Amino acid sequence: METEQHIKELHRRYLDGQCSEQEIDYLFQYFGLPESEQLLRQLIIAELNNEEEEFEDPIVINTMIGRVDQYLQEKLALKPNKMIKLGSNLIKIAAAAVIFIILSCSIYYYLYRSIEKLKSDTATHLNKKDIAPGRNQATLTLADGRQIILTDATEGELARQAGFKITKTKNGQLTYQVTQVSGKDDTSSLNTYNTISTPRGGQYRVNLPDGSKVWLNAASSIKFSAAFNSRNVRKIELTGEAYFEVARLKTKTHSSAANESGSSIPFIVVTGKQEVRVLGTHFNINAYNDEPVTKTTLLEGSVRITGLKNKETVKLKEGEQSGLNNYGIAVSNVNTEQFIAWKNNTFMFEGDNIQAIMRQISRWYNVEVIFKGNISKENFGGKISRLKNLSEILDLIELTGLVHFNVEGRRIIVMP
């Protein structure tokens, strides 16, 4: 009780501007401890009760406290890895932010006036040069050369070919549906292909004829035969990045074309450097030309990866990732959530340097990135929504104090 009374007394002196540096530092440390939460709430409520009577409503109080929590989590969400440690400066920074935001100001005036003014000022600034996030947009190139801009296409049937009906669904997905079943291959379509491509700043989901699902990231494409579903192999050529949920598909005969199991048709994804062979599984492939390593991340099932150059082969288990470069293939255990976060409209960084982060930002916001000066080599960690405008993303990264940005149109200059 003596400590609690002492803290309350320090709190009052702090609000009156009478605390020494040592006492302020003590407050920072105290409110960084989990056991101080109850007292902190009491002090907030006591401070609110000194304001207008309407704020005595506990629902309003909890809402305001929640907004402070949300504000702090977002502003401190992105941080260098060196700060994600107990005993680091992060606790002190968070405590200082809590004291500054909650204790040194009236909650009413800070949340409902200062933040709103900041939003207004920021909005004025953003309107001058802000860039919106990417969106669902892609182009379908049919086997006969026709191109359909899927972003502009209306809901419903888009085309028919090789026994398939191609439609755009209500929620904007592209779906291939079988319209005729034949026991023989359609030889006229074996060497004709469909291509679905997304631009920089685009993404799209495709439902393939066999029931498999593909999510395409920005600046990516898949190419497959118009007879994709009629042979004893399903093959796709990929550039860029895609997440696959592959459906198991049985052969119509027990021919030698069947795979190891003797009953399921293999699903093959070929990139510029590797071939991935699966039966039924969930996995992600990042094969951008500007990335130093081609990464295949397995979430469910199993896959076999073969390097096209040296023919090295590895098999992945769930939770593993292969990295292919000019020296061969390396396999490691990873947090799979990080590598499919883009599919869920999130940037997730774990040990990524600023160069890797900016490559993702460049593709998603369709901007050019230039590095100037001695850029930090620190690794970053954190989550940020991919639905935010560009300026919000850059502001959060700048909070680390390791890099700064200058935006000139669609060009971002990264500086120390």
The biggest beta sheet reads:
19 strands, mixed
Average of per-residue pLDDT values: 77
Number of helices, where a helix is a run of at least 4 consecutive DSSP H or I residues: 9
Instruction: Give the number of DSSP strands.
Output: 25
CATH topology of the largest domain: Jelly Rolls
Rg to the nearest angstrom? 27 Å
Instruction: Just name the CATH architecture of the largest domain.
Output: Sandwich
The count of domains is: 3
Structural class: alpha+beta
> Are there runs of 5+ residues with pLDDT below 50, and where?
51-65, 81-115, 124-128, 182-187, 253-262
- Indicate the CATH class of the largest domain: Mainly Beta
How much helicity do the residues have?
25-40%
Q: What's the N-to-C terminus distance?
A: 48 Å
Portion in beta strands: 25-35%
The dominant shape is: elongated
Based on the model shown, name its key terms.
3-stranded antiparallel beta sheet, 9 helices, about 425 residues, about 30% strand, elongated, Phage tail protein beta-alpha-beta fold, alpha+beta, Jelly Rolls, 19-stranded mixed beta sheet, 25 strands, 3 domains
Give the helices and strands, then pairings.
Elements: H1 2-15, H2 21-30, H3 37-49, H4 58-75, E1 79-80, H5 89-103, H6 107-129, E2 135-136, E3 139-141, E4 147-149, E5 156-161, E6 164-168, E7 174-178, E8 193-197, E9 202-207, E10 213-216, E11 221-225, E12 234-245, E13 267-270, E14 274-278, E15 282-287, E16 294-300, E17 303-307, E18 313-316, E19 320-325, E20 328-333, H7 336-340, E21 346-352, H8 354-365, E22 368-371, E23 380-385, H9 390-398, E24 404-408, E25 411-415
Parallel strand pairs: 2-9, 7-9, 12-13, 22-25
Antiparallel strand pairs: 1-23, 3-4, 3-8, 5-6, 6-7, 8-11, 9-10, 10-12, 11-12, 12-15, 13-14, 14-17, 15-16, 16-19, 17-18, 19-20, 21-23, 24-25
Helix pairs in contact: 1-2, 2-5
